[in-house]
Amino acid sequence: MSEKIIFMDYNSTTPVDDEVVAAMLPYFTEKFGNAASKHHYGNEASAAVGYSRKKVAELIHAESEDIIWTSGATESVNLAIKGIVESNFKEGANIVTTEIEHPAVLDTCRSLSNAGVEIKYAKPDRYGIVNPNDFESLIDNNTILVSVMTANNEVGTIQPIPEISGICEKKNVLFHTDATQAYGKIPMDVNAYKIDLMSFSAHKIYGPKGIGALYINRRNQGIKISCQIHGGGHENGLRSGTLNVPGIVGFGKAAEIAGKRIFDDFKEQTVLRDRLTEIFLRRLPHVYLNGHRTKRLPNTANICFEGVDANMLINNLKKIAVSTGSACSSATLQDSHVLKSMGLTSEKIKSSVRFGVGRNTTNEEINIVTEKFISTVNKFRN
């Protein structure tokens, strides 16, 4: 019997929860209607979509009508950033973001810079946290959008979103956050946080891949956003295309489960994350935690094993699924832009591994993973 592969990469994706699969299955077969059709099957699908919209919204204290369905967080980011720029473009327009955003944000901003939009970047401190005061100077009269991720996908650090959004409100600038890693993992309130637009997806919270959402604060009359996918006027004219009803149902069920489990998951995963981190720090010399010790996601630990190549480590531990950074940029062999912006040397970046625990992670798995990593690190160092 082959040895089980231990999954420790929950930042990249999560397995679909059994309850989510069960909720989705009927919408592939007997409840297969198009939600836009005006008959029994269509109405049945539309009702399921409406219920899911409510559940996805409730998790962030939003209203159902604030949720626009997309194919995933990357599309949500594109719709938010490009849609706002297209509707509000003016001579000298600029966007303010950070150096440590996900490629979905950074690449979208780069594409707009080619069209004449200036992009300004806030730099993080050595823990991967940006200073809200920097936005006071970066935002000017030509700023049309500020985009700052809620939590970083590589090191897990959580940004001071309420402070940054408060500055945006004071300066009358729209605020967008990529909450892909944070949604369903930490409590969020779009009203208290004064968020205008928020991007996220289902597959980070034990839902299916290929379905995401964009929250748009309908009560802010200053939000004008242009559709990026045309053809039918679905989703209030903001995102055309036949709705992925099974995916939406799965997203709704995953959000419902996350809402019930969020505090228990937070506590359990924090214990596992900290145990893994402490074992490495206690038993191996020249090992460091990248990111903030406490101001980070409950499931994420980015560890630098100084003097050891992380890719060699991973290749020698094929029964443990971990990564060196974002799954969305793994096709490139460049140093992590996040760790580089935090001030790490190229050598330390190449020695860093991201561990992501999840609902299914056990203490026994933490024991196995730490023992195997410690043994392999010592072997390479010797």
Low-confidence region ranges: none
Write down the CATH topology of the largest domain: Aspartate Aminotransferase, domain 2
CATH structural class of the largest domain: Alpha Beta
Class inferred from helices and paired strands: alpha/beta
List the quaternary state of the chains.
single chain
Q: Tell me the series of helices and strands, N- to C-terminal.
A: EHHEHEHEHEHEEEHEEHEHHEH
Which CATH architecture of the largest domain would you pick? 3-Layer(aba) Sandwich
Cα(first) to Cα(last) distance is 32 Å
Q: What is the number of helical segments per DSSP (H or I, 4+ residues)?
A: 11
Beta-strand proportion: 5-15%
- CATH superfamily heading of the largest domain: Type I PLP-dependent aspartate aminotransferase-like (Major domain)
Mean pLDDT: 96
Radius of gyration, whole Å:
21 Å
Can you list the strand order of the major beta sheet? Answer: 2-8-7-6-5-3-4
Biggest beta sheet attributes: 7 strands, mixed
Count of folded domains: 2
Helix content: 25-40%
Shape field: globular
> How many beta-strand segments?
12
Explain what this protein looks like in three dimensions:
The protein has about 375 residues and is an alpha/beta fold. The chain folds into two domains: about 5-15 and about 260-380, Aspartate Aminotransferase, domain 1 (Alpha-Beta Complex); about 20-255, Type I PLP-dependent aspartate aminotransferase-like (Major domain) (Aspartate Aminotransferase, domain 2). Helices cover about 40% and strands about 15% of the residues. The protein has a seven-stranded mixed β-sheet, sandwiched between helices. It has a three-stranded antiparallel β-sheet with strand order 9-10-12, covered by helices on one side. Strands 1-11 form a two-stranded parallel ribbon. It is globular, with a radius of gyration of 21 Å. It starts with 5 loop residues before the first strand and ends with a helix.
